[in-house]
């Protein structure tokens, strides 16, 4: 299974979130997921909201175009990204495979 696929003009991405990190970043590919580190704590959905905001910035789309499909209470999430204008360099190879 690929960490992300492009389907009908949107990206479906499997993410492993590392909250309370020292900085926000797409760390790399971890098996069949993309490891994302965020500074927000995993309290009251703050890390979820921050992951969506961070990915919206990385993919150059509005926060409203990023939603968690599965894994609201887990560090393993499936996220949908619509109307993206950019793909981070680390993930471009997976987008090219899907198109």
Automatic annotation (TrEMBL):
Pfam family, one: DUF167
SUPFAM superfamilies in the cross-refs: YggU-like
Source superkingdom: Bacteria
InterPro entries in alphabetical order: DUF167 (IPR003746), YggU-like_sf (IPR036591)
Gene Ontology CC, one term: cytoplasm
Coiled-coil residues: none
Family note: Belongs to the UPF0235 family.
PANTHER family: UPF0235 PROTEIN C15ORF40 (PTHR13420:SF7)
Protein name: UPF0235 protein SAMN02910344_00440
Organism for this UniProt entry: Ruminobacter amylophilus
């Amino acid at each position: 299974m690929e960490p992300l696929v492009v389907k009908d003009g949107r990206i479906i991405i499997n993410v492993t979130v590392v909250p309370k990190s020292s900085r926000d970043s797409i760390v790399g590919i971890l098996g069949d997921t993309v490891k994302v580190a965020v500074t927000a704590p995993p309290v009251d959905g703050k890390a979820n909201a921050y992951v969506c905001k961070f990915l919206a910035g990385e993919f150059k789309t509005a926060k409203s175009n990023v939603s968690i499909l599965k894994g609201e209470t887990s560090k393993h999430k499936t996220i949908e990204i619509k109307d993206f204008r950019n793909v981070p360099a680390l993930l471009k190879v997976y987008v090219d495979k899907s198109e």
